[in-house]
Structure to design on (72 residues):
């Protein structure tokens, strides 16, 4: 199923989810984090102090292995 989805699906930032989070020293866990773009955006823009993500797909050239992530 996921192998048929466009790469944009995995790399898009979920602004609709971020709108539910108050800025601050939050810890955010995203199930189905894709490439990690939403978590990186959250951390860089003050929505989260720590970010963790889980995804079943490994995406080359993504934030999944970035040092900015606290765990993925």
């Amino acid at each position: 199923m996921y192998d048929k989805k466009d790469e944009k699906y995995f790399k898009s930032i979920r602004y609709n989810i971020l709108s539910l989070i108050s800025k601050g020293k939050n810890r955010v866990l995203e199930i189905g984090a894709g490439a990690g773009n939403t978590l990186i955006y959250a951390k860089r823009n003050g929505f989260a102090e720590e970010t963790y993500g889980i995804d079943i797909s490994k995406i080359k050239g993504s934030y999944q292995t970035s040092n900015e992530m606290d765990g993925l």
Observations:
- The first helix runs from residue 7 to 11.
